[in-house]
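Run log, item B.
One chain of 228 residues. Sequence copied directly from the ordering sheet:
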Amino acid sequence: MSEPCEVMFKLVRCRSSVPRARAVLRAKLGEWRAGHMVAESGELVLSELVTNALRVQVPGDRMVGVRIESREREGLLRLEVSDAGEGRPVVRQPGELDTAGRGLLLVQALAHRWGVDERQAGIGKTVWADLLAPGAAPVLEEADVAAVTLRPGQSVRVWGAWRTVRSVRSERYASGGLFVIVCLDEGPALRLQAGEGVTVRTGGASAAGTPRTPAGQARPLSGPVSSS
């Protein structure tokens, strides 16, 4: 299972939202170790897409949605900007004296491909652009956490391989102690003491709020249990 490589956020309809979008993109591309050219082109494209979305007439106080995704297998950086306005953006051919209307020309020049989709949920549209970004991917780190803090979707090291946690439930011993049953995407479930340390893989973020314990990799205490 691949690690999540995306970030989504919303922007209010004001001029300061453009530099804010660029700052978020710059931070994520730094985490993903994207090259300088990718970062520079990505900021220009995202700035144009957000600027265009802010100019669209929309009902009420509708916000602008932004989604940034690294598609490592395809070697692409996907930028999406959604607004609640009608119509579709059109590439213009401004004259030499025109001071505006060149935004989509820039997007067209820098992007590998771009397009417009209707929003599946809600009104309006999503304008997207794919940029070539080979090697851009999250930096994976490992952290030791207590078994009781495991959550579905995390990657945990078990028997020398990475497995995805499907479900976690806790039970108590007759003596009052707590243990957890961890069901995985492959292999038998694990029966672990609540405080036992397991190694999880993160997308570059620390396991905030989880106690660190001196542990290696997850292992069953009393043998595997049924995951039915």
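Observations after the first pass:
- The two ends are 21 Å apart (CA to CA).
- Helices lie at 17-31, 36-55, 103-110.
Flagged for discussion on Thursday.
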